[in-house]
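in:
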């Protein structure tokens, strides 16, 4: 297992630690239609967001290694002379931005800041389905959450599984459900 922690893995960990464990163990969920759609529209959506935000310039699909974090930022936008990461989501903007989306953005902030050697206080999430942009600012509580998730993921990458914590609302449609055994399968209910 790699010791590089991708911001997507941080997002997944905060949504469901067991799913992050399976991904880190080399068993990623097969791409869903939404995932495939997201990849297809990523460049076009990032360009639309850059234009909407008035970016002076934009770099697309930027791979950054800033241990323990590494991954590919959908775009790095230069706004008012400062770099800001942009994450593209295929979905519509939710009423409240989920904390796992904010933590993923925080990880990109940390990576871009380290890679570019410039202070980065803001990340953007472009929700392509609705064409809306969320601005995520790095705050102390978000930094603490990021540090916590990175610490837990480092333990997972060293082979320590997370504590099982079933959530029926999340587990019901989860691809990893067959391995977690949080919920009985349909056959077991009969």
């Amino acid at each position: 297992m790699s010791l590089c922690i991708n911001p997507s893995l941080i997002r997944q960990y905060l949504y469901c630690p067991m799913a992050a464990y399976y991904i880190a163990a080399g068993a990623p969920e097969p791409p869903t239609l939404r995932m495939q759609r997201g990849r297809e529209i990523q460049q076009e959506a990032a360009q639309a967001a850059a234009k909407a935000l008035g970016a002076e310039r934009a770099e697309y699909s930027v791979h950054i290694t800033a241990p323990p974090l590494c991954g590919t930022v959908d775009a790095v936008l230069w706004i008012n002379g400062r770099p800001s990461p942009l994450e593209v989501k295929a979905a519509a903007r939710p009423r409240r931005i989920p904390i796992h989306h904010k933590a993923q953005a925080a990880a990109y902030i940390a990576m871009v800041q380290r890679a570019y050697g410039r202070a980065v206080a803001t990340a953007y999430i472009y929700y392509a389905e609705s064409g809306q942009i969320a601005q995520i600012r790095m705050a102390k509580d978000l930094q603490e959450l990021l540090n916590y998730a990175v610490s837990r993921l480092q333990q997972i990458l060293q082979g320590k599984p997370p504590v099982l914590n079933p959530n029926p609302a999340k587990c019901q449609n989860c691809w990893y459900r067959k391995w977690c055994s949080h919920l009985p399968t349909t056959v077991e209910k009969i």
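note: Helices lie at 7-15, 17-24, 33-53, 99-116, 140-157, 168-171, 177-180, 186-189.
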